[in-house]
Amino acid sequence: MIGVMTGANSLITIPVMLQFGIHPGVAVATNMLALTFMSVGGALPFVGKGVFDRRRLPLFVLLTLLSSAIGAYLVTLIPAEAMSFLIAFFMLGVATFVVLNRRAGVTPRQKVGFGAAFAGYLLTFLLGVYGGFFSGGYVTMLTTTFVALFGMTFLQAIATTKIINFFSSLVATGVYVWAELIDWPLGVALSVTMFVGAAIGGKLALKFDNNVVRQVFLVVVVALAVKTLVFDLDWDMLARLVQTALGTA
C-alpha cells in the first residue's frame, strides 16, 4: 500500500526472503514477478484520472524495455552487498532533495529545458538497468527523477512510474523465467498480496494532495535508507569488496 507512493518495496521483501534462507537469485527473481502484478494494481486507480504523462510515456517505456533486459542479465554479476550500500545513500540523497526543494512535486513545472530532459531520459535508462537487476529503490529514484527533471507533481510521477515499472518488471521476469529462477508458489502468493495492496494504496494516494504525498514519501524513504544501512548491509563483506577493488586497482 505504501509502496505505491514511495516505491522501495524490494528493500523489504527481498531481505525478508533472504532471512528465510531463499537463494538471493531466486529471491530477486520471485520478487520481480510479484512487482509486475503490483505495478498493475497500483496503476489501475489512476486510469482515467488524467495524471499520467502520456506525452513522454512511450519513450520512457522504450528505454525501460531495453535497459531492464540488460539489468536482469547482470543479476549474477554484481555483488548485492555493494548495491545495498549504494541504494541507501541514493535514497538519503533523494530525501535531501525533497527537503531542500519544498515546491518540487507539489506544483507542476510547465517548461522543461533540453538539458534537464536529456538528463531525465538518460537517468530513466540507467535506472532501468538497475530496476531489472534488483529494483530496490528503483521506483523511488525514478519518481524523484521525474519530479526534479521533468517538473511532474508527485501524483503524476507516481502514476507514470507504475506503468514504467510494469514493463521493467515484465521484461526482467521473462529473463528470470528463462533462467528458471522463480519460486512459483511463493511468487503467486506475493503477486496476489502486492496487487491488492497496491490497488488500495493507489486509491488512497488519489485522496491526498501532493503536499501529503510528499510528506509520506519523505518519511518512508528516510526510514528505508536507515533500515538498509543499519539492518541489511553486511559491512564486513563491503569492506572486503572495497579491499579487493583497491587491490585490483
Automatic annotation (TrEMBL):
Transmembrane segments: 26-47, 59-76, 82-100, 112-130, 136-155, 162-179, 185-205, 212-231
UniProt xrefs under Pfam families: TauE
Record key words, sorted: Cell membrane, Membrane, Transmembrane, Transmembrane helix, Transport
Keyword Transmembrane: yes
GO CC annotation, single: plasma membrane
Locations listed in the record: Cell membrane
Membrane topology term: Multi-pass membrane protein
Keyword Metal-binding applies: no
Xref: PANTHER family: MEMBRANE TRANSPORTER PROTEIN YFCA-RELATED, TRANSMEMBRANE PROTEIN YFCA
Family according to the record: Belongs to the 4-toluene sulfonate uptake permease (TSUP) (TC 2.A.102) family.
Protein name: Probable membrane transporter protein
Organism: Truepera radiovictrix (strain DSM 17093 / CIP 108686 / LMG 22925 / RQ-24)
